[in-house]
């Protein structure tokens, strides 16, 4: 008998996908020291955008928050079309400075790369990149072993996605069972989740947000009003202004949402799911105000978690620019004026300006997710 140290031991522990990726990288480096970066880029089929989700190299990676339309990355696109991985044994020869992104890869000192497309049950979900600091390292035997690592990392990623899907499905089912009437019509959730992502991306440098955080804000923001399931029809769907009593009942949706999420996480054994606090915070605190006049707690400023401050701006902007049972849709210009007035009062200033300064992207989203039946 002898003791063997499992270099992938960390995969058996409760840890984030990011930690698991780093552990895998360390293990891989014992055999292949030239692999200096492993990165995952995920694909959003709705917007056709590809973006870096996780990477295992140093903290100040210039490729963090990289995103691009798959259309605009022709060599990556052809990997998807052919469904086969790509080996580039000399990145310098591969692309002589045509693409800004490839340029950055070279500046990092990456000399060669192995790129695997990731599929879940045949559906393309992203890419896995292995970058080397030496050229001509990817031969058949190395690639064979990288494939094993690559497929293992893909499964870890799919597992993460499946947890989010389970969570979303659980919440939808809960909603249907309790006769969820959807008061926020049309594509409200599609738009507001993307506004949330625009804001988070714009604040990434200032607040040191990583891609995984941003992606989770995007994934979880559609669940902000889950607690409205518990509000009676006559209030939720009232075609005019709410009276005092109705308004106070309406306000309970924040706390109700937090409780529902806790229940669901318990029932579906997802309590240890990474970043689950982002979800709880969004549901519970998205109506808190910077100046302390919000609900349910009246907490102030930085006491309100950033994800809730982000979602609040996205939610209010979309509520203003959409039709509700109780109001008409406003123009972008009037909504922007109101956001500016609310900035520093109820809404976070940085979050407001992050959205306003990216109106070109906001308009793209409005074009893509037009109201279906209402205006
Ligand atoms: P919601 O429709 O998703 O609105 C989200 C938030 O957007 C509101 O949070 C509010 O901060 C902002 N908002 C929406 N419309 C306006 C507006 O015309 N002017 C201004 N300045 N802000 C606006 P709030 O007020 O806490 O409301 C939470 C939820 O309560 C709303 O979600 C909606 O479902 C319901 N609600 C609020 N007011 C009324 C109302 O007068 N009648 C009815 N039927 N429901 C209401
Ligand atoms: C590529 O097509 O592989 C790189 C181009 C880019 O991402 O800009
Ligand atoms: C990346 O490593 O994030 C992209 C590399 C590539 O375009 O080949
Ligand atoms: Fe709400
Ligand atoms: Fe909302």
Task: Explain what the structure shows.
- 49% of the residues lie in helices and 11% in strands.
- It folds into two domains: 153 residues, Beta-Lactamase, CATH 3.30.450.40; 195 residues, Hypothetical protein af1432.
- It is built from 15 helices and six strands.
- It is globular, with a radius of gyration of 23 Å.
- A six-stranded antiparallel sheet has the order 3-2-1-6-5-4.
- It has 375 residues and is α+β, with helices and mostly antiparallel strands.
- The model has no long low-confidence stretch (mean pLDDT 87).
- Helix 6 packs across helix 14, helix 11 packs across helix 12 and helix 12 packs antiparallel against helix 13.
Describe the structure concisely:
The protein has 375 residues and is of the alpha+beta class. Helix content is 49%, strand content 11%. The chain has two domains: 9-161, Beta-Lactamase (2-Layer Sandwich), CATH 3.30.450.40; 174-368, Hypothetical protein af1432.
Biggest sheet, strands in spatial order? Answer: 3-2-1-6-5-4
Rg, Å, rounded: 23 Å
Pattern of helices and strands: HEEEHEHHEEHHHHHHHHHHH
The count of β-strands is 6
How far is it from the N-terminal to the C-terminal residue, by CA? 73 Å
Number of spatially distinct domains: 2
The helix tally amounts to: 15
Keywords, separated by commas or semicolons:
2 domains, binds succinic acid, binds ligand C2E, globular, 375 residues, Beta-Lactamase, binds fe (iii) ion
């Amino acid at each position: 008998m002898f003791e063997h140290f499992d270099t992938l031991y960390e995969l058996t522990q409760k840890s984030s996908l990011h930690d698991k990726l780093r552990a895998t990288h360390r293990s891989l480096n014992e055999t292949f020291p030239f692999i200096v970066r492993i990165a995952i880029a995920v694909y959003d089929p709705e917007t056709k955008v590809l973006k870096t989700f996780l990477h295992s190299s140093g903290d100040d990676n210039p490729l963090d928050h990289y995103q691009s339309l798959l259309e605009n990355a022709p060599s990556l696109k052809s990997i998807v079309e052919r469904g086969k991985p790509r080996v580039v044994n000399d990145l310098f020869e591969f692309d002589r400075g045509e693409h800004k992104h490839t340029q950055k890869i070279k500046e990092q000192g990456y000399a060669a790369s192995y790129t695997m497309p990731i599929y879940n049950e045949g559906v393309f979900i992203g890419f896995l990149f292995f970058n080397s600091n030496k050229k001509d390292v990817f031969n058949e035997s190395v690639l064979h072993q990288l494939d094993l690592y690559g497929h293992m990392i893909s499964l870890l990623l799919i597992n993460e996605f499946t947890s989010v899907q389970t969570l979303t499905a659980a919440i939808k089912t809960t909603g249907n069972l309790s006769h969820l009437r959807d008061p926020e019509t049309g594509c409200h959730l599609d738009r507001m989740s993307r506004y949330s992502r625009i804001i988070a991306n714009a604040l990434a440098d200032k607040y040191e947000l990583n891609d995984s955080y941003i992606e989770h804000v995007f994934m979880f923001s559609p669940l902000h009003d889950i607690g409205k399931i518990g509000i009676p029809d006559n209030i939720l769907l009232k075609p005019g202004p709410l009276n005092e009593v109705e308004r106070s009942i309406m306000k309970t949706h924040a706390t109700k949402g937090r409780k529902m999420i806790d229940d669901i996480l318990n029932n579906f054994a997802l309590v240890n799911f990474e970043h689950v606090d982002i979800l709880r915070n969004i549901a519970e605190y998205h109506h808190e105000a910077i100046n302390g006049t919000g609900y349910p707690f009246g907490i102030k400023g930085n006491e309100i978690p950033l994800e809730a401050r982000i979602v609040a701006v996205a939610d209010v902007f979309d509520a203003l620019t959409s039709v509700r049972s109780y109001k008409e849709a406003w123009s972008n210009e009037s909504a922007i004026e109101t956001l500016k007035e609310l900035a520093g009062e109820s809404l976070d200033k940085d979050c407001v300006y992050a959205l306003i300064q990216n109106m070109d992207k906001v308009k793209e989203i409005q074009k893509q997710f037009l109201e279906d039946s209402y205006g």
